[in-house]
Design a protein that fits this description.
single chain; alpha/beta; 5-stranded mixed beta sheet; 4-stranded parallel beta sheet; 4 helices
Length: 172
């Protein structure tokens, strides 16, 4: 269910994910990471298109991918580039991990295979809840149980959508 009062005309920080993503020609070496079967052909295509050192890893889940990415981030130097492909919730989590480790936006390129799941960060209890939903919909917080409006704001450093009390106007 979409709450039109919240979604209509709202300013947004939702990423505009491009359909086509190519390697940064200024990169000196690359880390290519895919999550899920849908990302496999994307990551293979990227690896074939790069004529410089490339590390590739295909993961079945974000936890495995995060462990592998951590090792790459420890070795990253000037000229390193990260390319991520997979479901939006997973790509946002890995992108957040890279940014927290010191990577900058210009070093990271992302290709999304699906947007069916999101992680919602509760503004009230700080819990993160993964759900099959999208911005403008409502969901229960996995921490405090409040009914949250999933706002059209994504935190770069949390890798999550903002959620706040859906019936906040009832408290006025």
């Amino acid at each position: 269910m979409t709450d039109e009062r919240m979604a209509a005309g709202a300013r947004t920080s939702l990423p505009a994910w491009p359909e086509r993503v190519e390697a940064d020609p200024s990169g000196r070496w690359f880390a290519i990471l895919g999550i899920g079967d849908e990302a496999l052909e994307i990551t293979r295509g990227w690896a074939r298109s790069i004529d410089r050192p490339v590390w590739t890893f295909q993961a079945g889940d974000v936890a495995t991918a995060a462990d592998s990415l951590a090792a790459q981030l420890r070795e990253a130097r000037v000229g390193w580039r990260l390319m991520l492909a997979g479901p939006e919730a997973d790509v946002l989590a890995l992108r957040s991990q890279a940014l927290s480790a010191g990577a900058v936006d210009e070093e990271i390129r992302c290709r999304i295979t699906t947007r069916e799941r999101v992680v919602v960060h509760c503004a009230h209890c700080a819990a993160d809840t993964e759900v099959k939903a999208s911005a403008g919909e409502r969901t229960a917080c996995g921490g405090c149980g409040r009914l949250l409006h999933i706002y059209s704001h994504v935190s770069r450093f949390r890798g999550a959508y903002l959620g706040f009390c859906a019936d906040v106007e009832a408290f006025r």
